[in-house]
UniProtKB/TrEMBL annotation:
Signal peptide: none
Name this polypeptide is given: Pentapeptide repeat
Origin: domain of life: Bacteria
Residue ranges of the TM segments: none
Pfam families: Pentapeptide
Length: 326
């Protein structure tokens, strides 16, 4: 048995004891709260941990989605670094530090124009958070997870984003200044989204998991550019050169192309499917591997012997579609 597996089993056993022997566990924890323990990475989704004493237990990267933590003791648990706090239930009796409760509130009670200026938010998990028009000026977000967060209109003047996870974030109308600490790639995305310029040379760049929603990329050189898992939704690609561009799982909804856009036939066809839906479309023997077809109406489509490996079908509809040999 490897050390990692052993630690994993220890954590799972500890979680089982907390679930099944709540009163006994709480008494033991009260008497031994100084002993650091870890439930890092454990999946607690939909669990009832009402009144559980989790003091000084590391919950970093734990999945707490829809978990009931009313009246729980969450002192020193690093819950603000948990993998998922969506739907977590807290109450006035939940013992939790101010920063952790704030992170929970940001995730579960979205509101525009939050004032988070000058706060110490190092290492917190704000993945998918709605931070529209938020004031984050002077905040310390070093090593924070902001992946796929909506920061549109936010004030990041003097914000420290050193080593922060910024995949897929929306940087439209975001305010930066000379004191903002942000990685070069994210600074480039911010520049593209907020300062339109034609004929940009982005060839051979690694721009995976970036959000270029609505970007003006007219006549841009995107030859051999890696855009995998990103979003080009509503981007203007008229006249752009996308020869050999990597468009695996890229959102192409609303993208503008014209007769001067150079794009590989496969991705031109995916763009066509996404933006010009047809009833009973014949996709027999078509290569749709890695295509982002989320939300596409494929009812009655002929998908016989179609390569759908690793395609994204989130919210797509398939009623009466024919799949033989896919």
């Amino acid at each position: 048995m490897t050390t990692n597996n052993f630690h994993r089993r220890e954590k799972e056993l500890l979680a089982t004891i907390i679930f099944s022997q709540r009163n006994l566990w709480n008494q033991w924890r009260r008497d031994n709260s100084e002993v650091p323990l870890s439930l890092e990475g454990i999946n607690f989704q939909d669990c009832d941990l009402t009144g559980a004493n989790l003091e000084n237990i590391d919950l970093t990267n734990a999945n707490l989605k829809d978990t009931n933590l009313k009246s729980a003791n969450l002192k020193d648990t690093f819950i603000e670094c948990a993998d998922n706090l969506q739907g977590v239930k807290l109450d006035d009796n939940t013992q939790i530090d101010e920063t952790s409760r704030l992170v929970w509130d940001v995730i579960n009670n979205p509101q525009s124009e939050r004032n988070l200026s000058n706060l110490d938010l190092r290492g917190v998990n704000l993945k998918w958070a709605d931070l529209t028009n938020a004031n984050l000026s002077g905040a310390d977000l070093n090593d924070a997870n902001l992946a796929y967060a909506n920061l549109s209109g936010a004030n990041l003047s003097g914000t420290d984003l050193t080593d922060a996870y910024l995949w897929g974030i929306n940087l439209a109308n975001v305010r930066l200044d000379k004191n903002t600490k942000i990685d070069e790639q994210s600074k480039l995305i911010w520049e593209i989204v907020n300062h339109p310029k034609q004929e940009r040379d982005l060839s051979k760049m690694s721009l995976e998991e970036v959000n270029l929603r609505g970007a003006d990329l007219r006549n841009a050189d995107l030859t051999d550019t890696h855009l995998t898992n990103g979003s080009l939704k509503n981007a203007d690609l008229r006249g752009a050169n996308l020869t050999n561009a990597h468009l695996n799982n890229v959102n192409l909804i609303g993208v503008k192309l014209d007769e001067n856009t150079i794009i590989d036939e496969k991705w031109k066809f995916v763009w066509e499917i996404v933006n010009h839906p047809q009833s009973q479309r014949d996709l027999k023997k078509t290569d749709l591997s890695y295509a982002n077809l989320a939300g596409v109406d494929l009812r009655n489509a002929n998908l016989r012997e179609t390569d759908l490996s690793y395609a994204n079908f989130g919210r797509s509809r398939f009623k009466r579609g024919r799949f033989e040999g896919c």
